[in-house]
Amino acid sequence: MWDTLFGLTNGIALAAWAVLLFGPRTKRMRAAILLIPIAVLCALYAVMLIGLTAGLFDPVGNAGGMSELVRNYSVDGLMALFQSRGGIVVGWTHYLAFDLMVGWWIAGDADSRGIPRWSQLGVLLATFLAGPLGLGLYLFYRATRPEVANADH
């Protein structure tokens, strides 16, 4: 089950990133990316998290459950959360959903500021591969270019 969910969530995220990077960025397409893949990833995450926390989905029992992390909020507690395949897939889905949402925001903000699509590519790829790095690069880019930082929306 977890391998299937891992493949499904990765497929959804990769398809959405491909559209975000190379597809048209019309108002309708931006809405579709927000409402379909991002919302689906969030919904899958919620179902998996609740099922894992309740012990419904993972044959290992509490391994990978949130109860250990709540009791032991530490590196050891976090390690216990990721002791199961379910814990890893839930955590990975969290990254996929948030990184895609951040990429969606960056693309829209950059478009509204007139930043050329070709120059967004590196920042968006960095966001895809390492979300906070890409976001940091974009915010730095925006802050250090007065013509971009002061652009009216």
UniProtKB/TrEMBL annotation:
The keyword Glycosyltransferase is assigned to this record: no
Descriptive protein name: DUF4281 domain-containing protein
Keywords: Membrane, Transmembrane, Transmembrane helix
Membrane-spanning ranges: 6-24, 31-57, 86-106, 118-141
Coiled coil stretches, renumbered: none
Pfam families recorded: ABA4-like
Organism in which the protein naturally occurs: Alteriqipengyuania halimionae
